[in-house]
């Protein structure tokens, strides 16, 4: 049995294929899949898909990249960009989704300083004002995690210092054993932080070709590791779309790196994911 802890069935790439893709995943033993949201519409879609399938769960939240939408809206209305009115509406909708029984986590949420080649926002720029808003939106979503006793899926890209800053300010004991650095960058400080705060580390298909990650994953104790595909992205074959049936390939690779059996990787990472999402 395998658990794909991060798969975007809620993205357009799966609009027509989701039922077949789930079937293919189940055939190779991937019978637990979590779909994270990245904004309000994809969070709603994650819940709708999870509702229809056994073993499929949803997370809801606003991804730091899509905080740009809020940022642009607030800017256009020339409001103070940190004024609660600017971020209220989306966060209220996220909060409402938390009462659904298939919603086990808030995610993916975090900080992202990456300059994307492809984005739907033509004027996308990483400015300090925008990052401050990302941090504010992240804080508010972490508050929701604590308030509703959910798990936390963190997205961090090239923004470790900002991430630590927010986590240090908002950390709550309840988040221990219930948080994950999804698609974790190969970074010793992230690993140390995760160890200190009893967090999990998500490993993806890029482990098959990304040398630094291979070295990094060797250092991550198996008890901290969860598997994820980040489908439709990060295919182990660099082919789009990736899908959860590729989870066993990631497990095989991890098993080789750690010198243990695939069964052991499957068993422990699935157990870890169940602890992470409290299911
Ligand atoms: Zn992510
Ligand atoms: Zn993702």
Can you describe this structure in just a few lines?
The chain is an alpha/beta fold. It has 10 helices and 8 strands. It has helices at residues 18-27, 40-52, 67-76, 84-97, 128-148, 160-170, 188-196, 211-219, 247-258, 262-276; strands spanning 2-4, 30-36, 56-60, 103-112, 151-157, 179-181, 200-203, 225-227.
Structural write-up:
The chain has 279 residues and is α/β, with parallel strands linked by helices. It has one domain (2-276): TIM Barrel (Alpha-Beta Barrel). The chain has ten helices and eight strands. Strand 2, helix 2 (40-52) and strand 3 (56-60) form a beta-alpha-beta unit. Helix 2 (40-52) runs parallel beside helix 4 and helix 5 packs parallel to helix 6 (160-170). The longest helix is centred in the middle third of the chain and has 21 residues, at 128-148. The protein is globular and about 55 Å long. The two termini are 15 Å apart. The relative contact order is 0.15. One zinc ion binds next to loops.
End-to-end distance, in Å?
15 Å
Number of self-contained structural domains: 1
**Low-confidence blocks of residues:** none
What is the rounded Rg?
18 Å
Strand arrangement, major sheet: 1-2-3-4-5-6-7-8
Give the SSE order as H and E letters. EHEHEHHEHEHEHEHEHH
Query: Which molecules are bound in this entry?
Result: zinc ion
Which strand-content bin applies to the residues? 15-25%
Helix-and-strand structural type:
alpha/beta
Number of helices: 10
Q: Look up the CATH topology.
A: TIM Barrel
β-strand number: 8
Describe the sheet with the most strands: 8 strands, parallel
CATH hierarchy class name? Alpha Beta
Task: Give the overall form.
Answer: globular
Summarize the amount of helix as a percent range.
40-55%
Mean pLDDT: 95
């Amino acid at each position: 049995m395998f658990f794909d802890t991060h798969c975007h069935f809620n993205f357009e790439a799966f609009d027509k294929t989701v039922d077949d893709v789930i079937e293919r995943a189940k055939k190779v033993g991937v019978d637990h899949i979590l779909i994270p949201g990245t904004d309000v519409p994809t969070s709603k879609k994650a819940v709708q898909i999870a509702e229809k399938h056994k073993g499929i769960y949803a997370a809801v939240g606003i991804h730091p990249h899509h905080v740009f939408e809020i940022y642009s809206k607030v800017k256009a209305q020339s409001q103070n960009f940190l004024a609660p009115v600017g971020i209220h509406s989306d966060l209220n909708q996220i909060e409402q989704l938390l009462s659904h029984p298939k919603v086990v986590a808030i995610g993916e949420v975090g900080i992202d300083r990456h300059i994307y080649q492809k984005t739907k926002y033509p004027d996308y720029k990483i400015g300090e004002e925008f990052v401050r808003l990302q941090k504010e939106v992240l804080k508010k979503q972490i508050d929701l995690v604590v308030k509703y006793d959910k798990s936390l899926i963190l997205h961090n890209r090239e923004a470790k210092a900002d991430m630590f800053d927010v986590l240090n300010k908002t950390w709550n004991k309840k988040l221990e054993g219930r948080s994950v650095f999804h698609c974790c960058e190969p970074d010793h400080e992230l690993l140390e932080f995760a160890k200190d705060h009893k967090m999990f580390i998500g490993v993806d298909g890029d482990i098959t070709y990304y040398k630094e990650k291979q070295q990094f994953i060797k250092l991550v104790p198996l008890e901290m590791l969860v598997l994820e595909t980040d489908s439709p992205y990060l295919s182990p074959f660099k082919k789009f779309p990736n899908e959860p049936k590729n989870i066993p390939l990631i497990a095989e690779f991890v098993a080789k790196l750690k010198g243990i059996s695939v069964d052991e990787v499957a068993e422990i990472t699935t157990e870890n994911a169940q602890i992470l999402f409290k299911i």
